[in-house]
Amino acid sequence: MDHLVLTVIAEDQPGLVERLADCIARHGGNWLDSRMSRMAGQFAGILQVAVPTSARAELFDALRELESQGIRVLLAPSGSAPGRSWRMVRLQLVGNDRPGIVRDITRLLASHGVNLENLETEIAPAPMTNESLFHADARLAVPTGLPLEQLQQHLETLADDLMVELKLQAAE
Fold first, then answer.
1. Which of 100, 103, 86 lies closest to 141 in space, CA to CA?
2. Is 12 helix (H, G, I), strand (E, B) or coil?
3. Strand 132-143 and strand 115-125: pairing?
4. Residues of 16-55 as b/e, b for ≥16 C-beta within 10 angstroms?
5. Tens of pLDDT, residues 11-56
6. DSSP character for 83?
7. What pTM did the predictor assign?
8. pLDDT digits (tens, 9 = 90+) for 106-138
9. Order of strands, edge to edge, in the sheet holding 86-96?
């Protein structure tokens, strides 16, 4: 079996996931993990599938044919897991919305060798003022050699500059 990662984007419409799932199943593929969402009228997703090696080329062709229905699919072989030792940590952040928050936080994380495993963000109005607030919830893979207190301290220094509140805790 070959393991593949597919990225999908299309204008949101009923039946879109069914067409994708049917295409995969018709070629002996097994839908494994996925994350999918509707955003700004578009549907986007990433998924992992397992497919018999003998059916891989036919699946590639069939997925490319979905483009005639407005469904764009990008394919890649599954990668290997990093050879480092990690601990999973959850980062929650809320702050006044402004350009560059994601860049600044991810730059700091990358400089400490932290891998971003999952990131969800949204802009929502503040309860009393109706000001736009940026919310982020992230799952981080932190190298075991990096003290969590040190990462927390560096994030708090950045948080002061960005005028954000953050919480860093062991992930469940």
1. 86
2. coil
3. antiparallel
4. bbeebeebbeebebeeeeeeeeeeeeebbbebebebeeeb
5. 999 999 999 999 999 999 999 999 999 999 999 999 999 999 999 9
6. S
7. 0.80
8. 999 999 999 999 999 999 998 888 888 899 999
9. 115-125, 132-143, 86-96, 164-170
d(CA 142, CA 109): 9
Q: Decide if pLDDT at 145 tops 70.
A: yes
Max CA-CA distance within the chain? 59
Tokens, residue 15: 């039946």
Q: CA-CA distance, 154 to 172, in Å (whole number)?
A: 23
Rounded to whole angstroms, what are the CA distances from 118 to 10, 88, 109? Answer: 22, 11, 13
Q: HSE (CB half, 13 Å, CA atoms) of 122?
A: 9
Residues with Cβ within 8 Å of 15's Cβ and at least 6 positions away in sequence, in order, are none
Query: Considering only CA atoms, which of 171, 2, 3 is closest in space to residue 87?
Result: 171
Residue type, 8: V
